[in-house]
């Protein structure tokens, strides 16, 4: 159980960092990587769980 909590905290940190970085991009830069602003949180959570 402790390991699961640690893993979740690590995922949350990766998620937060990704959301912050993607939010700094303008709409054109997001479109270049195939995202729009409404997809940032979904993409960030998916990326956080992959590692």
From TrEMBL:
Domain of life: Bacteria
Pfam family, one: YjiS-like
Domain YjiS-like: 6-41
InterPro entries on file: YjiS-like (IPR009506)
Designated name of the protein: DUF1127 domain-containing protein
């Amino acid at each position: 159980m402790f390991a699961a909590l640690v893993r979740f905290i690590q995922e949350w940190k990766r998620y937060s960092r990704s959301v912050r970085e993607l939010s700094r991009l303008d709409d054109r830069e997001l479109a270049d990587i195939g995202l729009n602003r409404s997809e940032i949180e979904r993409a960030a959570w998916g990326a956080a769980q992959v590692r």
